[in-house]
Design a protein that fits this description.
3 strands, 101 residues
Length: 101
């Protein structure tokens, strides 16, 4: 078991956050546009889904949840649903989806 696997297991068992595999998902541009690249990089987060005024955001770990209210207020939606993924997957997704135009 790698240290990343151990961290993922900890998050699932002790923090109770759903773990997502960003490498296997396709995120629509309408969701990506909810958060800027700068915000994503600053907080190591990534927008995953937006439905019924709930923005699902991937966090690296529970320690980044301090950004929760800032994100909720910044996007103007009443609810932000946190899920988690590894730092590597979040940074990879940011690079993949926020390409320079």
């Amino acid at each position: 078991m790698t240290s990343e696997d151990s961290q993922d297991q900890f998050l699932r068992n002790h923090v109770g956050m759903e773990l997502v595999d960003l490498d296997s998902l396709q995120i629509p541009h309408s969701v990506i546009s909810k958060l800027s690249k700068e915000v994503c990089l600053k907080h190591t987060i990534f927008p995953l889904d937006c439905f019924d005024e709930v923005l699902t955001v991937v966090f690296e770990d529970s320690l980044t949840l301090d950004a929760y209210d800032k994100i909720r207020l910044g996007v103007g939606l009443p609810h932000v649903e946190p899920v988690c993924s590894s730092r590597e997957q979040i940074l990879s997704a940011i690079q993949r989806y926020y390409k320079p135009r």
